[in-house]
Specification:
One of its GO terms (molecular function) is oxidoreductase activity, acting on the CH-OH group of donors, NAD or NADP as acceptor. The protein is α/β, with parallel strands linked by helices. The protein has one domain: Alpha-Beta Barrel (TIM Barrel). Helix content is about 40%, strand content about 15%. The protein contains nine helices and nine strands. A hairpin with a 5-residue loop joins strand 1 and strand 2. Helix 1 runs parallel beside helix 2, helix 2 packs across helix 3 and helix 5 packs across helix 6. The longest helix has 15 residues. The C terminus is likely disordered.
Amino acid sequence: MEYKVLNNGLRMPMVGLGVYNISERETQRVVEDAISVGYRSIDTAAMYYNEKGVGDAVRACGVPREELFITTKICDSCYTKEETLRTVDHSMKQLGLDYVDLMLIHWPVVNQCETHVLYQQRKMLEYLRPYNVALEAWSPLAEGRHGIFKNPVLMRIGEKYGKTSAQVALKFLIQNGIIIIPKTTHKERMVENINLFDFTLSDDDLREIRLLDTGRNVTGWPSDALKYNPESV
């Protein structure tokens, strides 16, 4: 596993598992599977309603707590002092852990936003670099949209290395210093998504993949979300 040293000195794994949209009932099994195949970073949030499953998995997995990097989040409408304290307390009770490694507000130690080969966030990377803020990609595979898994450029590059188009897309982000948290409930895909450190994309590969950038997101978040929660702006 490769790590990103954050501007507070913590080492954050470059690959983690995001558990957004995974049911509370499934979460413990999914997280235990992920840890068993080598994941050490798990990303949850109060609004995912599955923090308890993450905490249960951490306690049951047999891996020392200090070897794991657990992220949860302050919800977008909880930015006053009182609301922040309340949501932190709620998350800690749900997780049942003594501490989390990252309590995310989407900045400034880590800025988590939609990033993938179709929406590469180059301006964001340039903006964050002087502040030593890490960029973390959610939806690093563009939710499978726009034919990303059948993209001929990614498939052709993957054939050179014996890798899938998804692995090439994820490796591109890592080689640009971007942390990734691909979500899956399938153990075999967890293995695929973490087996990224036995090959390196060439400069020519990177140039070709940069040309895939459309400059547009595919999820509609956060702009759509702000329509329903404008006070969080």
